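Human: My hope is that you can spare some time for a protein that puzzles me. I am handing you a single protein, as its sequence and its fold in token form. Could you go through the record with me and say what the backbone is doing? Take your time, and here it is.
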Amino acid sequence: MQSATAAVLLILASCTGMTDAQLAQLSLAEHSLRNYNEQADRTNGYTVWEIRAEAERNGWQPKDSAIVTQATQLHTRTQTLRRYFDDTRHQLLASTDNDAEARTLTAEREVRGLMLPEKPARISADTLQQRLRAYSQYVQQLSPAPVRLGASPAEEIRLHGPALAQVKKLSFSQFYFNDTPVAAALLSLAQLEAQVLQRETDVMRQFQIMGGSHHHDMARIGAFAVSESNWVPAGGTYRARLFLVRSESRLRNLRMTANGQPVPVTGGWGEGQVQIPIPANQPPGPAVWEGTISGKYYGQDTTFRVRVPYTVVHQ
């Protein structure tokens, strides 16, 4: 995850004058990273459930109760910050006329107008940085670590070398959103959100150890989907593989669905072939399909969910 984040930072540092193909690559990377964020958020939610289950098995000792409270509060605070990311993402799409379909991947002026306003605003780069730093300070009290969320380029230790000397003079707002195409701005949001979720994951793992949980496989499994393509023509068929990673866990009696329809589980280890017919008259633009993987985990019904974005195009 850290190497991927570093790669994103380097891309953002040189996004001026990108070709259409390069901008499309940023858009695909943003879709993939958002999918990762959904998985990480779900995994952290299950970790809270597991910590609570361990506390119940231990008879709710005072130490266990305190850990459950801290884990629950951390996940709630993370969810609040994720909602702000979603609001910012939706505002970016709307302000660049991308809310119905992908019309432009550039729109630098619109991005700058929204994220670097002349007056303080709820949706802005400065507000985002403030919220990231507040979250970072909160998490630092739970688990000290040399991680600074909302760091400016000068504070970002992963940016180093003479080629990036000028970049490190920029502010947080300028670095991520000034003269930035919307494809890169959306990728920035996904990358910053991934940092938040990674920090939450690290703290949740410490809570698990402190609570004496012996069932750590739940924190390492989840539903994932790999599509043949993120673009599908109207009248065609969207195809993807839906599978459970780390299926050697104690999750039994697997069942899968895609958009509410059953998906046959094949291979004996938790994989399903998803096929979604796209109506010929479906308007072009972004779409999402939802998959579930359900089963018994330590005797309890458990469901993993995944939301996968794709784009309908007209040939």
In short: Residues 221-313 form a domain with the Immunoglobulin-like fold (CATH 2.60.40.1930). Residues 20-57 form the longest helix (38 residues).
